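ok trying again, last paste got cut off:
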Amino acid sequence: MLTFCFFAGALVLGTFEIIPLSIAFMLAAFLCVAFKCIKTEEAYQKIEWNLLVLIGGMTSFGIAMEKTGTATFLADHIISLFGGIGPIAVMAAFSLLTVFLTQPMSNAAAAMVVLPVALEAAETMQVNPITFALTVMLSASVSMITPFEPSCILVYGPGGYKFRDFVKTGSLVTLILIVVILIMAPYLYPL
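nice, full thing came through this time. structure:
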């Protein structure tokens, strides 16, 4: 019951912007350990260290891309290739790039790599960066062509699936989702 109260409190504090949501949840987790709702050893076992290292590394990679000018360089090239067709084509290119990257790596890592480049492209084209950010973030969750995503791995063995099952079914679902993203993102946040 105490754990529920801590996390409900964190949600309220974050929702009403009394403190940032990430800090509120970190505080709730700390209080759970401090009040012995969960043992320290158990808390350490529940942390996915591989994911933390990956996110930390990809965040640094994204910052390095911005600081070195790589994001600007890539954004300029994508704009030069697809900009003549229009901003939707550039957005589609970023969506496809994100979907391609999210197949072998985590969706968070793929988004962190592509997002700075997409935002730079949106600024260069003087279009709404929120639309590009939304497209990249949603596209990062479309990892259905390969079974490397943790949720896909969970069903891969027990379901008796083969790699080609993911490619065959996942490709069609991915295509449908990309089309939906490219229609809905500019509809919700006009360019």
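cool. Residues 49-188 form one domain. The two ends are 46 Å apart (CA to CA).
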